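User: quick one, sequence for these C-alpha cells?
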C-alpha cells in the first residue's frame, strides 16, 4: 500500500505534463497513452510509466507553431516515470522560456528544435547512461502545415494522408537522449 501511495503521488506529478495546449483552428492534436504499470489507490485507478506526449503552441519568427513531443523514458514503472517527469519539466521550461523571451522567439524553427534537443540531451547525459529516453519532437507551421522534426531512436514517424499510412523516415537519425558522445555538432532537422 505504501508503494501504491508513492505511485499515486508520482501519477499526480505526471498528469499536468502530458497535455494538449494547442491554440489554432487549423490543426487538432489527440493522444492515446497507455502506461505499463496500473494500480489502485484510495478508489482511484491510475497508471505510471515512461511514456509522455506533449503538444503546445509557440511563436517563432512572426509565425505560430504547434509543438509536439512523444517520448518513452527507460523503465516500466517508477524509473520510467522519473524520466518522464524530468523530460516533461525541462521541456515545459523550454516552452515557457520561449513564450517569455523575445530572443528565443526570433529563432528559426530548425534552430529552436536543435537548441531544445541539445538541452534535453545534456540534461539526460548527467545520469551517465542510467536514464535514457527515446523521443520524436517537432514543430508544425500552423498556417502552411510544414513539419520540422527530429527523432532520437523513437519509432519512425507515420504520415496518414488520403486513407494511406506511410513512414516519413527510412533511416536512424540520433541516439536516445542521454547516450554519451555529444551529438550537438551533427544535429539536423527533417
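Assistant:
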Amino acid at each position: 500500500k505504501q508503494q501504491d501511495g508513492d505511485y499515486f503521488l508520482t501519477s499526480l506529478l505526471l498528469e499536468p505534463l502530458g497535455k494538449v495546449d494547442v491554440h489554432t483552428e487549423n490543426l487538432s492534436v489527440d493522444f492515446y497513452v497507455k502506461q505499463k504499470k496500473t494500480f489502485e489507490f484510495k478508489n482511484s485507478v491510475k497508471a505510471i510509466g515512461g511514456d509522455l506526449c506533449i503538444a503546445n503552441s509557440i511563436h517563432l519568427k512572426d509565425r505560430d507553431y504547434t509543438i509536439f513531443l512523444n517520448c518513452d523514458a527507460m523503465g516500466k514503472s517508477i524509473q520510467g516515470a522519473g524520466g518522464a517527469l524530468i523530460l516533461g519539466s525541462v521541456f515545459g521550461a523550454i516552452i515557457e522560456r520561449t513564450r517569455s523571451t523575445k530572443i528565443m522567439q526570433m529563432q528559426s524553427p530548425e534552430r529552436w528544435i536543435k537548441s531544445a534537443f541539445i538541452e534535453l540531451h545534456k540534461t539526460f547525459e548527467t545520469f551517465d547512461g542510467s536514464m535514457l529516453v527515446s523521443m520524436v519532437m517537432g514543430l508544425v507551421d500552423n498556417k502552411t502545415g510544414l513539419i520540422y522534426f527530429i527523432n532520437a531512436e523513437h519509432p519512425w514517424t507515420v504520415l496518414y494522408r488520403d486513407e494511406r499510412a506511410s513512414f516519413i523516415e527510412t533511416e536512424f537519425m540520433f541516439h536516445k537522449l542521454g547516450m554519451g558522445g555529444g551529438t550537438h555538432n551533427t544535429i539536423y532537422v527533417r
